[in-house]
């Protein structure tokens, strides 16, 4: 099961009136993006007001701050539809025709979506900090729920669920394909074994001074004629030094 609370979001639980515990057996199948139509500071008071009957799981501020209000294994109220008389109705009872093709038949989409609000207005372009925070959150959510991020399938806008009352949510400037690509690349990169660069190491300094490029391997031991050396492969050569003799670094061309 997914973790209830994102470890890098500010945890701000709201009153229990404004969400449902659990997901009635439904599995999360999409992340829905919203616009808050106001600042981050106004979101928690709204969702914590039992008279509003409103909530989302997260909100991202223009500075990249992330707040979480509802556990991701619980049901927030941001994406609700009802199936009445063989048609979808939104929260105001208006008949809607969702364009999202992965709606579960006759099932309230709140039960199988995670909602992310974003500070600002629908006609505004998100800040770089917002995109960075959003991508970081998407990576975490995709891993928690085993989602492949696909624009307008597993990553959608609220307008794709309620085109009547929310035709501009989250707005025309949101770059779904860009987010899905970047978050997917970030997730893949996290699974690789990264090679840290020590820019204070003797071999690295020597290689940069000789314009040999960047490290292709970590440092590794070499024994020649009973003497211990440390070596490292760079773009244009192999740099090496006798252990302890850090002032006499040398290099040879790669074969």
């Amino acid at each position: 099961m997914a973790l209830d609370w994102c470890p890098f979001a500010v945890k701000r639980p709201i009153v229990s009136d404004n969400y449902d515990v659990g997901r009635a057996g439904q599995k999360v199948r999409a992340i829905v993006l919203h616009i808050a139509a106001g600042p981050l500071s106004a979101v928690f008071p709204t969702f914590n007001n039992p008279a509003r009957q409103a909530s989302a799981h997260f909100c991202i501020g223009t500075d990249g701050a992330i707040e979480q209000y509802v556990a991701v294994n619980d049901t927030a109220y941001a994406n609700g539809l009802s199936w009445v008389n063989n048609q979808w109705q939104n929260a105001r009872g208006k008949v809607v025709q969702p364009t999202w093709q992965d709606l579960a038949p006759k099932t309230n989409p709140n039960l199988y979506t995670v909602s992310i609000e974003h500070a600002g207005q629908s006609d505004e372009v998100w800040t770089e900090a917002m995109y960075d925070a959003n991508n970081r959150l998407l990576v975490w959510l995709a891993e928690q729920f085993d989602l492949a991020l696909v624009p307008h399938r597993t990553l959608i806008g609220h307008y794709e669920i309620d085109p009547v009352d929310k035709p501009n949510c989250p707005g025309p400037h949101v770059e779904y394909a860009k987010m899905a690509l970047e978050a997917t690349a970030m997730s893949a990169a996290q699974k690789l074994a990264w090679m840290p660069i020590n820019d204070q190491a003797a071999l690295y300094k020597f290689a940069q001074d000789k314009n040999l490029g960047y490290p292709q391997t970590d440092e590794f031991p070499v024994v020649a004629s009973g003497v211990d050396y440390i070596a490292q492969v760079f773009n244009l050569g192999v740099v090496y030094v006798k252990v302890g003799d850090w002032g006499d670094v040398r290099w040879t061309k790669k074969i």
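The chain has two domains: 10-190, 202-252. Residues 212 and 236 are 5 Å apart (CA to CA).
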